Amino acid sequence: MFERSILHLDMDTFFVSVERLRNSELQGKPIIIGGHSDRAVVASCSYEARTFGVRSAMPVKMALRLCPEALVIRGDMDAYIQESRNVTEIIKEEAPLFEKSSIDEFYLDLTGMDRYVGCWKWSGELRHRIIKETGLPISSGLSINKLVSKISTGEAKPNGAKLIEAGMEKPFLDPLSIRKIPSLGKVTYKKLRFMGVKDIRTLRHIPHQLLQREFGKHGLSLWKKANGIDNSPVVSYREKKSMSSERTFHEDTIDVIFLKSKLTSLVMKLAYELRQSARLTACITVKIRYSDFNTYSKQKHIPYTASDRALIDFALELFDKLYQRRQLVRLIGVRFSKLVYGHQQMELFTDTQEDDKLLKVMDDIRKRFGMGAVKRGSCG
Predict the structure, then answer these.
(1) In a shared domain, residues 152 and 13
(2) Is pLDDT larger for residue 376 or for residue 248?
(3) pLDDT of 36-79, one tens digit each?
(4) Does some domain include residue 236?
(5) Are residues 361 and 221 part of one domain?
(6) What domain count does the chain have?
(7) How far is CA 197 from CA 70, 179, 190, 191, 329, in A?
(8) Domain around 287
C-alpha cells in the first residue's frame, strides 16, 4: 500500500499577477483589485499592499487610507478565467488525477508515482513548467493529505515550494498560529483565543470531547485539523457546463406573485450550490411551460457572479420579459451556464461588504439547518 502523496498548487496573488503579466509597469507597486465606488471592497491585493495592512474583503476606502499610493484596478474576470484555463491545461497534460478547487487553486493526487519518479522532483518540474509557460508565480506544498499540503503552500509563499515528509505533519503544524487552519472563522478564532489557544500545538492537545462540547460537531473537525488528519479524496476534475432546477406545479397557476416566489427559491438554491462548489455563472436562463405544454425561455449574459441578490434580479427581469401570455403556467425553471471555478469573493468588484457578509451568514445557516432555514423577502 502506497503512502498518499497530495500536491497543492496555488497561484500567488492571482488577479494581481495576471494584471502584471498584461502590464509590466505594475511590477513592484502596491496593487488593489476592486471597484471604484464608495462602497467597493478589495477583491485581491499585492504583497506590497499587504505590508500596509491591506487585506481582501476590506473596503477600498479603508485600504487607500492604509496605503494611499496603491493603484486600484477594477479587474478583468475574462482575462483571469483565460489564464486559469491555461494553467489547467498544463496540469491536465501532466497529472494523473487532479481537482480544481477554485480559479487559482489545485490539488493533485500523486500517490504511487514514487514507484516510477520522485513525487517531490516531479512536482517541482510541473511547477517550473507552469511558471515558464504562463509567466505566473505559483506556490506548492506536498504532503500525505490535502489539509497539510494547503497549509504548507501558505508557508511556501510567495512563489515557493515546501515538502512535509510523512510522519512530520505534527512537528510542522505545532508552532503555527491557529489562524493558519483553513476555514477557521473569526468567531471560532476569538473563542479559541479566549480559551488561551494561540498555536496549533495547544489546540492539538485539547481533548476532542472538550472541543465538541464547546464547538459542537465542528469541534471534532478542529481537533482533526490540529492533528493533521484529513482523509478527503482528490475529486477528479470535470468541467461542469451548466446547472439547472425546475418546478412542475400540482395545479397550473396564473398567480404571478406565486410564480416569482418559486422562481426566487429556485435561483437561491442554485446560487447556494454554485458557492458550495466554488463556481460562478455568466449566463442565466429562465424557462416557462404553459398548460398547453408550449415552452418558452429567455437567457441573459451577465457579469460573473454567485450572488443571490444579483441572480434573483436577473431572473425576475427575464421572467417579466417572458411571461406575456397571461395564461396558466405548468412549470417554471432556471439554468446557470458558462460556469467557471471561482469563489464568491470575485463578485467583490461590485458587491458591498454588507452583501458579502450577509451571504456568508445565510450560507452558514443553510449548512446547519438546510436550505429552507433562511430565505430572502418574497416578491411584491
Answers:
(1) yes
(2) 248
(3) 877 788 989 999 999 999 998 889 999 999 999 999 998 888 89
(4) no
(5) no
(6) 3
(7) 35, 11, 9, 9, 58
(8) 242-371
198 and 111 in a single domain? The answer is: no
CA distance 187 to 323: 45
Q: Is 252 exposed, middle or buried (0-12, 13-18, 19+ CB in 10 A)?
A: middle
Alpha helices in 183-251 (DSSP H): 186-194, 200-204, 208-215, 217-226
The closest of 90, 93, 96 to 127, measured between CA atoms, is: 90
Cell 449566463 belongs to 283
- Alpha carbon distances (Å) from 29 to 17, 24, 43, 77: 12, 10, 17, 21
Residue 131: CB partners within 8 Å, gap ≥ 6?
Answer: 137, 138, 159
Q: Which set of grid coordinates corresponds to residue 308? A: 443571490
Strands 340-341 and 42-45: unpaired
Give every CB contact of residue 287 below 8 A, 6+ residues apart in sequence: 246, 295, 296, 297, 331, 332, 333, 334, 335
- Nearest residue to 279 via CA among 146, 137, 84: 84
Among candidates 41, 42, 46, which has minimal Cα distance to 17? 46
Comparing CA positions, the residue from 135, 155, 105, 102 lying closest to residue 17 is 135
Q: Give the mean pLDDT of 110-134.
A: 91
Strands 329-337 and 242-253: antiparallel
| Coil, strand or helix at 116 | coil
- Provide the 8-state DSSP code for 115: G
Average pLDDT, stretch 228-255?
Answer: 90
Cis ω on the peptide bond leading into residue 158 (within 30° of 0)? yes
Contact yes or no for 353/59 (Cβ under 8 A): yes
Q: All 3 cell numbers of residue 114?
A: 514514487
Q: Give catalytic residues, as residue numbers.
A: 105
Q: What is the domain-level CATH number for residue 300? A: 3.30.1490.100
- In the chain, the N- to C-terminal Cα span, in Å, equals 61
The region that residue 216 occupies, defined by phi over 0 for left and psi between -120 and 50 for alpha, beta otherwise, is left
Closest CA to 20 of 143, 135, 117: 135
